[in-house]
Amino acid sequence: MRKPIIAGNWKMNKTIAEAECLVREMRDDLMAIPSVERVLCPPFIAIDRVAGLLQGTGIGLGAQNMHWEDKGAFTGEISPLMLKGLCQYVILGHSERRMYFGETDETVNHKVKAALRHDLIPIICVGETEAQYDAGETEVVVCQQVKAALSGLTAAQIARLVIAYEPVWAIGTGRAATAEQAQAVIGGVVRATIARLFGQTIAEQIRIQYGGSTNSKNIGEIVSQPDIDGALVGGASLKADEFVTMVRITAQIYSS
């Protein structure tokens, strides 16, 4: 059985002091739920401080982005070499990065390879826009994003990463995909594409999350689906009680 993973993407929220406070609020409760892999992804400025608070807890830490080069004249960027040793995960290809900062399938692939090279676990985001969804292009778009992100990787590398299916029309809108819709894409497109590329055995090993307006009210139905291995949580991860509740519900589902 794949171990479920619930990751909180704090996005551009929380000062260092606020990040410390939020971690302290949820840390002990999260430590008590080791059957779920729990990951916190604060802004860059708070990673070092949060790393200290999470040391020895078993709770994972992730960055929200990174450049693919180790160093160089890339003003404002953070390299995988800078993250190595600070955190274990890095979110790559989030739709907000694609939409607002010009990221492409090609740059996402560069970042995935760089993350793996430095022993960081990529959480690769894929998902269609509302216009693509309405046009019936979900399968084509998501399949292409998965293929591009994984291009040039070995089967051993593939087994280490996490994929998050986040339909753009559901992110921050309160309009989550139904559990059945998410399952159809995650199982029928994402996992199926990986199976065609790398074989069914590898495809069954990879954890695939759902993201997009997840909360404590819908997480149980979502993680009950056979191909959904957790969630990449946005706004709800900024509320300690809500995020802890989502992790608890996930643990209960998997233990039943």
Textual characterization of the structure:
The chain is of the alpha/beta class. The protein has a single domain, classed as TIM Barrel (Alpha-Beta Barrel). Helices cover 46% and strands 14% of the residues. It has twelve helices and eight strands. It has helices spanning 16-31, 44-54, 80-83, 95-101, 105-117, 130-134, 138-149, 155-158, 179-198, 200-205, 219-223, 240-255; strands spanning 5-9, 37-41, 60-63, 89-92, 121-126, 162-165, 207-211, 230-233. Strands 1-2-3-4-5-6-7-8 form an eight-stranded parallel beta barrel, surrounded by five helices. Strand 7 (207-211), helix 11 and strand 8 form a beta-alpha-beta unit. Helix 1 runs parallel beside helix 12 (240-255). The longest helix is centred in the last third of the chain and has 20 residues, at 179-198.
Keywords for this entry:
alpha/beta; 256 residues; TIM Barrel; 8-stranded parallel beta barrel
Short note summarizing the structure:
Helix content is 46%, strand content 14%.
Topology readout:
Elements: E1 5-9, H1 16-31, E2 37-41, H2 44-54, E3 60-63, H3 80-83, E4 89-92, H4 95-101, H5 105-117, E5 121-126, H6 130-134, H7 138-149, H8 155-158, E6 162-165, H9 179-198, H10 200-205, E7 207-211, H11 219-223, E8 230-233, H12 240-255
Parallel strand pairs: 1-2, 1-8, 2-3, 3-4, 4-5, 5-6, 6-7, 7-8
Helix pairs in contact: 1-2, 1-12, 7-9
Supply the CATH class: Alpha Beta
Strand content: 5-15%
- Helix-strand makeup class: alpha/beta
Low-confidence stretches: none
Element pattern in H and E: EHEHEHEHHEHHHEHHEHEH
Ends: how far apart? 13 Å
Q: Name the CATH homologous superfamily.
A: Aldolase class I
Can you name the CATH architecture? Answer: Alpha-Beta Barrel
Mean pLDDT: 96
Largest sheet: 8 strands, parallel, barrel
Number of strands: 8
Q: What oligomeric state is this?
A: single chain
- Total domain units: 1
Radius of gyration: 17 Å
Strand order of the largest sheet: 1-2-3-4-5-6-7-8
Helix % is: 40-55%
